[in-house]
Design a protein that fits this description.
Layout lengths: L4 H12 L5 H8 L3 H13 L18 E9 L4 H9 L4 E6 L6 E7 L2 H11 L6 E8 L12 H8 L2 E2 L2 E2 L1
Antiparallel strand pairs: 1-3, 1-4, 2-3, 5-6
């Protein structure tokens, strides 16, 4: 999907205020509300945009946040990732370079549930060769309102081949 200037403006305004109405957004950008609605729907359908509420797990009673570093048998990487993706408590999952093949972030109500996740779920997945777990003690920065367009402007670079 090509992102044009209107899409960039929509994304920037939604980054600043994810609750802004389509009518207000249309007025600010000088287009119709229908145009905004169609553009946002297209951005969502193409998985460029996902509008969601973000919570601090510690403030809602989920007292255990852990990063789980996984060593995975190379021939089973895809199947392990697919299985890990199905585990509800895993909120973030990436394939990495370096010592570990993947990193998962799990959010759970307590450490007992973490032990169950590690031993009864992850330990049973064929291809998982080992794990190392780091428990999050405090969250000091959790940013979801970033934009690649902000970074481009700060660096004086280009996005999609166009100068800022």
């Amino acid at each position: 999907m090509q992102i044009d200037e209107l899409d960039r403006k929509i994304l920037q305004r939604l980054k600043d205020n994810g609750r802004i109405s389509f009518v207000t957004l249309a007025d600010e950008l000088g287009v119709s509300e229908g145009t905004i609605r169609k553009r946002v729907r297209k951005l969502e359908e193409n998985e460029v945009l996902n509008i969601t509420g973000v919570t601090d797990p510690f403030k809602i009673g989920l007292d255990t946040v852990a990063f789980i570093w996984l060593k995975i048998e190379r021939s089973r990487l895809e199947s392990v990732i697919n299985e890990l993706s199905q585990i509800e408590q895993i909120r973030y999952l990436v394939i990495t370079t370096g010592t570990y093949d993947a990193v998962a972030m799990a959010v759970l109500p307590n450490r007992e549930r973490l032990i169950q996740l590690l031993n009864k779920q992850l330990g049973q997945i064929p291809g998982v060769q080992g794990t190392e777990t780091s428990i999050v003690l405090e969250i000091h920065k959790q940013v979801y309102d970033w934009s690649p367009f902000d970074q481009d402007a700060q660096l004086g670079g280009e996005v999609d081949g166009t100068s800022s």
